[in-house]
Design a protein that fits this description.
This protein is mostly helical. 82% of the residues lie in helices and 0% in strands.
Length: 229
């Protein structure tokens, strides 16, 4: 217990890094998910093909493999392009940025299907009624599509968020000093790996419990006035 107290500041600092990675990643994943859902629902065959390839590739490859590929391969590709064109010099992507972009890019594919399914659940007649009443496309989206899109997407969104939160542990392999990295370092230094990883387990359970409370609040907010079976 004394060892845990001694390393507690480092563990708390790593926890804050984990939360920051998760929040930044989910923002990127939402943006990519909305864009991907639009691409899959668009009438453009090119947009359908690009978003279809994106979701198929991402969902078919393990997260760790993609993370290592994007971190090392992406950085090498940028430097090769810069060297060949002379447009920029050597670029070194920091671990936080790499973690956020890789996780956000990965879960953007899952969010794409979540938002696409939610949009298809909205009765088409409601959208047509809004247009018939003279509402603009933006107003139809804000007043009719978005509130229902959020409500239908929340179950899948919540599941994606909780899995994404746990996936942040993989960023430790890139060298980012987040919760798992700090816990492993402390456990190896004190030869108490089980103790420190148990602390890590408890912290992740707390984070998921707080997330569950927030998701339930969102569900109540966007389900106000909806009759439950």
């Amino acid at each position: 217990m004394e060892a845990v107290v001694a390393y507690l500041p480092a563990i708390l600092k790593g926890t804050l890094v984990t939360i920051a990675v998760a929040l930044c990643s989910i923002v990127l994943a939402i943006a990519l998910g909305l864009l991907g859902a639009w691409g899959k629902l668009a009438r453009s065959r090119a947009a359908n093909a690009v978003t279809g390839a994106y979701t198929t590739l991402i969902r078919g490859v393990p997260d760790l493999v993609l993370m290592l590929l994007l971190f090392y391969g992406g950085q090498q590709l940028l430097n090769d392009v810069g060297f060949a064109t002379g447009w920029w010099g050597y670029i070194e992507i920091n671990h936080f940025t790499a973690g956020v972009f890789t996780i956000g890019f990965i879960y953007g594919a899952y969010m794409t299907e979540t938002f696409r399914g939610a949009y298809l659940s909205i009765p088409r007649g409601q959208v047509e009624a809004g247009i018939a009443c003279g509402m603009s496309g933006g107003l139809v989206f804000r007043r009719i599509v978005w509130p229902q899109l959020v409500r239908y997407a929340l179950p899948g969104f919540g599941n994606n968020w909780l899995v994404l939160l746990k996936t942040t542990a993989l960023v430790s392999v890139l060298g980012l000093h987040e919760l798992v990295w700090e816990s492993f370092t402390a456990g190896r230094s004190t030869r108490q790996l089980f103790t420190f990883f148990f602390v890590t387990l408890v912290i992740y359970l707390v984070l998921t419990a707080v997330s569950d409370v927030g998701l339930r609040w969102l569900d109540r907010k966007y389900s106000a006035g909806v009759r439950r079976a």
